[in-house]
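Figure S7 source data.
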Amino acid sequence: MNPGYRSLCGEGLLKKRSDILAGIMKGCVLCPRKCRVDRTAGERGFCDLGGRIMIDSALAHHGEEPVLSGRYGAGTIFFSSCNMRCIYCQNYQISHKAAGRTLDPAELSRIMIDLQDRGCHNIDAVTPTPHLSGFVDALLCACENGLSIPLVYNCGGYENADIIRLLDGIVDIYLPDFKYGNDRDAYEFSGVSDYFSHAVSAIKEMVRQVGDCLEIEGGIAKRGVLIRHLVLPGRVENSIEVLETIKRCMSTSVSLSIMSQYTPIRAVADHPLLGRRVTKGEYETVVNKALDMGFDNIFIQDVNNYQLTPDFDREIPFSRE
Ligand code: SF4
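Tokens for the predicted iron/sulfur cluster complex:
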């Protein structure tokens, strides 16, 4: 299956999208915060990112869902900073500050080609939204240099649907979080008062573009949507609201990844709800509810699998050495 971005590149449309995104950087509305700062002039909005791409690391990642990691790993690029500030963020070290390696698009394109050369099954861009302009430039350059593996858009779900519309034909696999089924939890845990409506609109647009099924060839995902939901301790109700929303607004054919890997970071060690891991009972309640609702494409995890928590102070964040 030819990745969508290759067709767009051949038709000259990838360059046009890149130009549109470059224009948006002059009054940034890449995400729902709509800071409208001119990032090309060095102004900074909520994410504190300037006009250039910034990443923490790039690696063959074996801890994504099996259809993404496969045998040789997902070609994961961890972008720096985020448009959310979840107090429990599992990638806290890189998401709560704009720090890392600043790259130009040609440098990022070489990283993409290197991941492909290492046998990675895809380019798995983690939190690419605030970097989209440079990222699409890099994709264009990588495409011209032979990149041909699927592009995974791995994001937090707090997206501007108009921007997601610009990615039509570029992204092969959308991998959004759907964190909250209500704005009360979103505000309390992520400081965002309008998460729910933006996540619903954005994920509906993703499903419109690539369909509600995850197309898999030889055990590896090639196209579609896989919605992730991290079960939070003491918030089973929130998880059920998320499932009900997906059923009502999207489809029960959509693939879900229900994640048990929540691990309290130091910042929430004493939080009355978030200071512990999820219990087996909580996790199974959510999974069983999804099955009862008719979802049958569900990726599940073992509860208490500590291998999945990264440490970005290490050169290889998922290494335990
Ligand atoms: S990407 Fe950053 S600057 Fe742009 S709207 Fe979002 S938070 Fe604001």
